[in-house]
Specification:
The chain has a single domain (about 1-450), classed as Glycosyltransferase (Alpha/alpha barrel). By secondary structure, it is mainly alpha-helical. Helix 4 (about 125-140) packs across helix 7 (about 195-210). Helices cover about 45% and strands about 10% of the residues. It is globular, with a radius of gyration of 21 Å. The chain has a 3-stranded antiparallel beta sheet with strand order 3-4-5. It has a two-stranded antiparallel ribbon with strand order 1-2. It binds alpha-D-glucopyranose. The site of alpha-D-glucopyranose (GLC) has 6 residues, from helix 2. Alpha-D-glucopyranose (GLC) binds near residues 45, 47 and 183.
Length: about 475
């Protein structure tokens, strides 16, 4: 019988999308016939491919990643429109599909949210693209590709789009619900952690990719650096939660006016959920899920927290506290099949109101408290970064065996992730790639440097 790893590589091979013979990406899922409607799972998703890219780069397969980057750059929205119903200049699509066009010519059709269920906007795509470009450059040593004119233009348009001030006074980005991996209504509108940490990761990537001295790059590089340090300040100050912070919020005064308010966002202590009081370990902490006027989302979002670790947004002590949380609360956050996307699930009224009564996101299923194996790679990278890798090997190996036996499902359900997800696709590519990337990182832990950044960005206060 083939080993789990070699089976996984075969499946990756089957997932490749080829344009004129050249692989340019991987489909989201490649299930057996009759496994439900394809919907858009036969498309190349930018965020899903980022996980494939890590697995491929670790294996030395650089050219597929370069072809993906080149192809997706051509899909960027390049025109400035002053009417609506067009993707803003600089945006990249959530996914794209290769169609057989007229005269046998292939055509690429992007989806900016104009076809997606719920018409959700992919704010994360451009950020993942920058991160993949940075990882590709580092892993392959090919600095020329990033310096070519079309790639420099793509970088500049992304940065001009996300760095242009809106009506906000915070360095964080304001987005609608479902603008990232959680691409359904889940109460993740406003300033969700995952978008902010990805934004920071993308800025760190871009800083090293822009060629100085051309086309206004120098001014952009200055803005990129400033925004990085403002984000570090803002997130470390207002999103970080450990026991002393919880106690501070618990004793907050409210309705304070003026510059000296301690409770800047007017958080009412009665909104702290009961589960947190006994659950938060003394020696651990995490970045909160969201922050806005009179609103803290106290849920633990795994990907946003791991992104904070690998991007260097979390200072070393906080990064250690994050991975410690996953070790100390292993039963809740790692579970039988790693890893819990969001903890805890929205239930009853919260579920009804915040998900719009979404049966796919019923409590402890899918985005709402389901367990997602694609997170294995970023969990592994975060644990290696913080030196908390005890038991990691067993976790990844056991997950791989179970995934192979179950047909590589997209997600698992239940409080501890025991059941194959209610509507999980099989042969889901990022479940396969997440395992392969994790396994390779464990074999060559020094390679984690290709995908992580130091925590050396100094915070700059931007007082609210
Ligand atoms: C689902 C997930 C999304 C993913 C897509 C393709 O829509 O919510 O994050 O990119 O499937 O796998």
């Amino acid at each position: 019988m083939a080993s789990v790893e070699s089976e996984a590589w075969e499946r990756m091979e089957e997932a490749l999308v080829r344009r004129n013979e050249e692989p340019i990406g991987t489909v989201a899922a490649n299930p057996p016939d009759g496994d439900g409607p394809a919907l858009n799972y036969d498309e190349v998703f930018m965020r899903d491919f980022a996980v494939s890219a890590v697995a491929l780069l670790l294996r030395g397969e650089h050219s597929i990643v370069r072809s993906f980057l080149r192809t997706s750059a051509t899909l960027q929205s390049k025109e400035q429109h002053f009417d609506c119903f067009h993707a803003a200049r600089g945006m990249l699509p959530a996914s794209f599909k290769l169609l057989e066009g007229q005269n046998g010519r292939e055509q690429i059709v992007p989806d900016y949210g104009n076809r997606a269920i719920g018409r959700v906007t992919p704010m994360d795509s451009a950020f993942w693209w920058l991160y993949v470009l940075h990882a590709y450059t580092k892993a392959s040593g090919d600095e020329h590709f990033a310096q070519t004119a079309p790639i420099q233009e793509t970088i500049r348009l992304i940065l001009q789009f996300v760095l242009t001030p809106g009506h906000e006074l915070t360095p964080t980005l304001l987005v609608p619900d479902g603008a990232f991996m959680i691409d359904r209504r889940m109460g993740v509108y406003g300033h969700p952690l995952e978008i902010q940490t990805l934004f920071f990761l993308a800025l760190r990537s871009a800083e090293n990719l822009l060629t100085p001295g051309i086309d206004g790059n120098d001014e952009l590089i200055r803005s990129v650096r400033l925004r990085q340090s403002q984000l570090v300040y803002h997130l470390r100050t207002f999103y970080w939660l450990d026991l002393p912070d919880l106690n501070r919020i618990y004793r907050f005064d409210v309705e304070e006016f003026g510059e000296n308010a301690a409770n800047r966002f007017n958080i009412y202590p009665s909104t702290i959920p009961q589960w947190l009081f006994e659950w938060l370990p003394r020696e651990a902490g995490y970045f909160l899920g969201n922050l806005g006027p009179s609103r803290i989302d106290f849920r633990v979002f795994a990907q946003g927290n791991f992104l904070a670790v690998i991007s260097g947004l979390a200072a070393a002590p906080e990064a250690g506290q994050i991975t410690r949380l996953f070790h100390d609360r292993r039963d809740f956050l790692v579970g039988e099949m790693p890893l819990k996307l969001v903890y805890p699930a929205l239930e009853k009224h919260d579920w009804f109101l915040l998900t719009g009564s979404d049966p796919k996101n019923s409590p402890w299923s899918y985005h709402n408290g389901g367990n997602w194996p694609f997170l294995l790679w970023i969990f592994t990278a975060a644990c290696l970064r913080t030196g908390q890798d005890a038991g990691l090997h067993e976790t990844v190996e056991r997950a791989g065996e179970r995934l192979a036996a179950d047909g590589w499902p997209e997600y698992y359900d239940g409080r501890s992730g025991r059941l194959i997800g209610k509507e999980a696709r099989l042969y889901q590519t990022w479940s396969i790639a997440g395992y392969l990337a994790a396994r390779q990182l464990l074999e060559q832990p020094e390679q984690v440097d290709l995908f992580t950044f130091s925590d050396t960005v100094q915070p700059t206060a931007c007082e609210l």
